[in-house]
Amino acid sequence: MEFVIVTGLSGAGKSRAVDALEDIGFYCVDNMPPGLLSKFAELCLHSQEKLSRVALVIDSRGGHLFRGLFDELDALREQGGSYKLLFLECEDQVLARRYKETRRKHPLAAENGGSVARAIEAERRLLRVASERADYRIDTSQLSPAQLRERITQLFAGDVSGALMVQCLSFGFKFGYPSEADIVMDVRCLANPYYVDELRERTGLESGVREYVLEREETHEFQRRLYALIDYLLPLYRNEGKSQLVIAIGCTGGRHRSVCLAEELASHIGDSGQRVTVNHRDIQK
After folding, report:
1. Closest Cα to residue 91, out of 149, 25, 150, 138?
2. What is the pLDDT of residue 158?
3. How far is it between the farthest Cα atoms of the chain?
């Protein structure tokens, strides 16, 4: 039986993540007290109708009970169960805006004088270890609900105990740095199709833009060196037991150069048989 533990900052999208997991066949439980985790796992393991895929949301709504999470996860492993920890991250100002728009109360607001800003800061401290130990981290600051659903589906539609999943992520620096990235490559040094009138409104998925970016000698050399680095690093990450590797490629707006090169890198990685997905965070902006 495989468990996915969903945690992260309040307002970062845990409810939407659970909806996506449920849609791909997970049995989901929201707001599980950490102290009940090993008992719940034992119940699942010995039930007549065995559950093969379970997702549990455990977060700061449990208050200081959350601190017992990793003791319970260790007990789960002793029972023969395995788990992956998914952490949803988000920028402070985006979280504050979401709470203002929805008019919902932050779970730690009462003990922080009603201040959402102080509640977010306190929650970050409470969840720090979970963030550091997460197998998968997704920053939802710049993601639409549909993009978050797509990320969740790509990560967990298959076997969550499977090998390293590589995600090639294109982004625009002017829309913010992707905090979930493990490796960041800046391709603003390459010629920009934005300054070609007939290419400006097109994207790196279209042939004209791809030819402009990919047929240049400096791009060929960049790709050669990048692929050599990634080919060297992937076995090292696999040997360390890493579950997810996010390789982010950024240009100014996230629509042209970064999109082309993320697609090319994903194709190169996939040719070796490695599990890989490609996402374009800012292509519609």
Report:
1. 138
2. 67
3. 65
What whole-number distance in Å separates Cα of residue 89 and Cα of residue 183? 17
Task: Return the CA Rg of the chain.
Answer: 21
Question: Interior CA angle at 158 toward 155 and 159, to 5°?
Answer: 100
| CA pair distance 276, 174, nearest whole angstrom | 26
Question: Which residues have C-beta within 8 Å of that of residue 121, sequence separation ≥ 6?
Answer: 92
Which stretches in the chain have pLDDT values below 50? none
CA geometry: angle 87, 93, 107, nearest 5 deg: 60
pLDDT digits (tens, 9 = 90+) for 2-43: 789 999 999 999 999 999 999 888 999 998 888 888 788 888
Tokens of 139: 């920053």
In this structure, are strands 183-186 and 165-172 parallel, antiparallel, or unpaired?
Answer: unpaired
Q: Which pLDDT belongs to residue 53?
A: 86
